[in-house]
Amino acid sequence: MYIEKVKKNMNLPETVRILDTTLRDGEQTPGVALTVDEKIRIAKKLDQLGVNTIEAGFPAASEGEKEASREILSLGLDAQVCGLARTLKVDLDAAIDCDVDYIHTFIGTSPLHREFKLKMSKEEILSKSVDAIEYIKDHGIIAEFSAEDATRTEFDYLSKIYKSVEEAGADYINVPDTVGVLVPTAMNWLIGELKKDINIPISVHCHDDFGLAVANSLAAVEAGASQVHATVNGLGERAGNASLEEVAMSLITRYDIQLDMRTSQLVNLSEFVSRITGIKMPPNKAIVGENAFAHEAGIHVHGVLEKAETYEPITPEMVGHTRRIVLGKHTGANALRSKLDEYGIEMTEDQFCTVYDQIKNLGDKGKKVTDADLKAIAVTILGRAKKQIVKMEGFAVMTGENVMPTATVKLRIHDEVKTAAKAGVGPVDAAINAIQSLISETAYIELKEYHIEAITGGTNALAEVFVIMSDQDGNNATGRSTREDVVMASVEAVLDAINKILMVI
Ligand code: KIV
Ligand code: ZN
User: Fold this and answer.
1) Which among 19, 23, 25 is the best mutation to test ligand 1's pocket, defined by most ligand atoms within 8 Å of the CB?
2) Which of 106, 153, 206, 216 to mutate to test the pocket of ligand 1 (most atoms within 8 A of CB)?
3) Given this chain, do its domains 2-261 and 390-504 carry the same CATH topology?
4) What sign has the CA pseudo-torsion 87, 90, 94, 96?
5) Full-prediction pTM beyond 0.85?
6) What are the distances in angstroms from CA 115 to CA 64, 108, 129, 337, 402?
7) Domain spans of the chain?
8) First-residue to last-residue Cα distance in the chain
9) Structurally, what CATH architecture does the domain formed by 2-261 represent?
């Protein structure tokens, strides 16, 4: 609505290309290293999503990087495959050897990079840049030039170097905000000034050191930049890069710029990358986070149930997400009724009030309430709860130096007593493995979350264990136990959650 008031002052391009750098800058996320096979799997998904260019890696860095670029090229994707290279011949040759469609070459241009990293003069840097572009173009490859640390480079010099590479045949110039120092108004100004002299498409590459990567990318587009570098989940060096899902959804829904992207694949891609890289998204991550379409407050839930747009700016389906009504201390009666309806649970008004009070009480105590917890509370109040299905009858652990921790667990499951012994990385892991092996014949239930907290001090401190267990249908149930013995507390918490799941399935 208000954007219409300012759009006329923008220099929006007709369309914006996305250069995805998850496999290059994203892989520079501390602690992340992708195998060739993992890169291939991510590249296929990026292509299905519809990104224009995939920066597959830095071919000069290793044999694995070369192999990844070659293998991704051999897939014959619709997306162009790009390799990163310094302006050095050895780097450019490594990328050329991989037969990439596109080379992104870069050199530091700011005083800091010139003086301390490269120890080169402005003239040397300019001539190396021009030579690199000419070399790439002599090989008939698409050439993009980045002035690394552009946003801390003197404007006159920056503009001169970009103009020179344009004249040398570059297809794109890219403006990296290498350490994320710009604010959106400054980025907007910079791109606007560069646009006055540069006739090839301007690209932007923003880092998130101040949480401004997406805002800066959008500010660049408002000034006429027609390509954005982005990464899935905002992965990347230090605080990361502009997040692909946030940039894409903002461009499409805030600016009405068509990207030709199958946005309903965004959540699946985000989860896939998160699993492969081991970098979990916070629940409140925009667009793809677990809570992006979750509603708890009674007022919000009421609004969403009447008309989703009251508290949702876009539909969850647009990005492949699902709406979730979450129960807790802010839950309103409407939300609870809609949940009970969803599960076909009917009850009297009195029973409803008892369930409602219990949910609120749990929320007040800071407890998480899952749908399986609600079902367990409801069936108990309705008197339909099955008796405790899994009961512990006996338990022993063995642990120490140079021995594999092992746990023996004896459970009564549906009146049948079974025993299993399993090893684990520690006694808790061993105990949970033994329980899971015994339960596996009844249901597949796995541990999703495990938290432990000492609630008093000293070696005899009380430990509170909180777990979330999940079955194959996605039913999650919480379990808790407080004990002096951490292993016993863990076993009880796990059995608590397992019983809740078994009680309602
Ligand atoms: O952040 C950066 O400057 C880069 C360059 C390689 C473009 O990633
Ligand atoms: Zn970068």
Assistant:
1) 25
2) 106
3) no
4) positive
5) no
6) 32, 10, 17, 67, 54
7) 2-261, 294-382, 390-504
8) 47
9) Alpha-Beta Barrel (3.20)
Choice among 23-27, 310-314, 385-389 with the minimum mean pLDDT = 385-389
DSSP 76-89: T-SSEEEEEEESSH
**Average pLDDT for residues 129-149, to the nearest whole number?**
98
CA of 138 relative to ligand 1 center, distance in Å? 24
Amino acid letter at 18? I
How far is Cα 177 from Cα 203, in angstroms, rounded to an integer? 11
**In angstroms, rounded to a whole number, what is the distance separating the alpha carbons of residues 230 and 51?**
10
- With helix as H, strand as E and coil as C, how does 102-156 read? EEEEEEECCHHHHHHHHCCCHHHHHHHHHHHHHHHHHCCCEEEEEEECHHHCCHH
Q: What integer is the mean pLDDT of 261-277? A: 97
Higher pLDDT, residue 454 or 102: 102
CA of 478 to the centre of ligand 1 (A): 44
**Fold of the CATH domain 390-504:** Double Stranded RNA Binding Domain (3.30.160)
What is the tens place of the pLDDT at every residue in 334-380? 889 988 988 888 999 999 999 999 888 888 877 778 887 888 788 88
What pLDDT is stored for residue 385 in this prediction?
65
CA distance 384 to 167: 78
Residue 457 has pLDDT above 70, yes or no: no
Asked if 144 contacts 201 with a C-beta cutoff of 8 angstroms, the reply is: no
Q: Which tens digit of pLDDT belongs to each residue from 459-470?
A: 666 778 889 988
Our answer on whether the CB atom of 208 is closer than 6 Å to any ligand 1 atom is no
Helix, strand, coil share of the chain (percent; to 5): 45, 20, 35
Query: Which residue lies with its CA nearest to atom 2 of ligand 1?
Result: 178
Helix (H, G, I), strand (E, B) or coil at 503: helix
Structure token pair of residue 276: 């492969």
CA of 230 from ligand 2 middle (Å) equals 9
